[in-house]
Amino acid sequence: QTDTLFKKRKxxxxxxxxxxxxxxFKFMLPVDSAAMHTLGSAMHNCVFSYWERVRLGDCTIVYAxxxxxxxxxxxxxxxxxxxxxxxxxxxxxxETAKAFKKWCKKHNLL
Length: 110
Description:
alpha+beta, about 45% helix
């Protein structure tokens, strides 16, 4: 019985930690070209050059923020991930990579 109680508490703690992480990371769509420009400037990348493709519906840009800081920039096309990058086009690492994977799983992108 002690093992069962321990396992239940451990699962409860894990669910709580995951819900907190989801609260910390927000995945959003830029609403206009100004938002795309701000995103590109903050992430030090060329995402603003994708605005016309976004406007025409050829791709979708999603970005992730945590504590009001840009953490990831994602390019999608028809439910396929074309690329995902961090600041200065770096690969995602640590908790940002973990949050991205959970977001992908939630949206059936993996």
